[in-house]
Amino acid sequence: MKFFVDTAEISEIRELAATGLLDGVTTNPSLIAKSGRKVLEVIAEICEIVPGPVSAEVAATDYRQMLAEAAVLRKIAPNVAIKVPLTPDGLKACHALAQEGVMVNVTLCFSPAQALLAAKAGAAFISPFIGRLDDIGHDGMELIADIVQIYGNYPALKTEVLAASIRHPIHLIEAAKLGADIATIPPAVIRQLYLHPLTDKGLAAFLKDWAGTGQSIV
Ligand code: E4P
Known about the structure:
This protein has helices spanning 10-17, 29-35, 39-49, 63-74, 88-99, 112-120, 130-135, 140-153, 169-178, 187-193, 197-213, and strands at 2-6, 24-26, 54-57, 80-85, 104-109, 125-128, 160-163, 182-185. By secondary structure, the chain is an alpha/beta fold. Strands 1-2-3-4-5-6-7-8 form an 8-stranded parallel barrel, surrounded by 7 helices. The site of erythose-4-phosphate has 11 residues, from α7.
């Protein structure tokens, strides 16, 4: 499973990139707003740090304006993936961009039917939002299962399932068990993945016993 980080904070991205675990980055207008930075600058900086796909979202809602914005975003770096919302105009833009060989991430997906449309429009990535479905009392993970099953039925569909709106490690593990290709994960959740109390306890015991030997390896 590929790991993308869901943030526009450069310091977080740098730190995670250094672990070698990062395969890409996703941003959205809310994350750009939170960074307090200009979108073109921040995306350019992220693309220099991470060679994998970096999703930059259009802010327009109509097809022509989406393509105009995509033209600007694409120029930043070859690893920019254009993120469009799952609307009729968004999918039309997805189709046009995909025809030109551009990676498109279709975002705000909340149903299997929407995911099927995005794949037919040539999306490189579909972003089903798990957490936001859970928030309204639906089962976000069921959406991942449905999309993985549907795409699996049609090998000609090349769209990767990018599990999004991940709120905790269990979301990630369940999505991985279902075969989602990628997860985009907030930095805080990535840090949680390392943790287990038995690891801490075991390490403390090893260190105590080792100190008792009086040895050193180097
Ligand atoms: C995906 O690309 C989105 O940026 C993100 O996963 C949304 O997550 P949220 O529902 O926690 O805002």
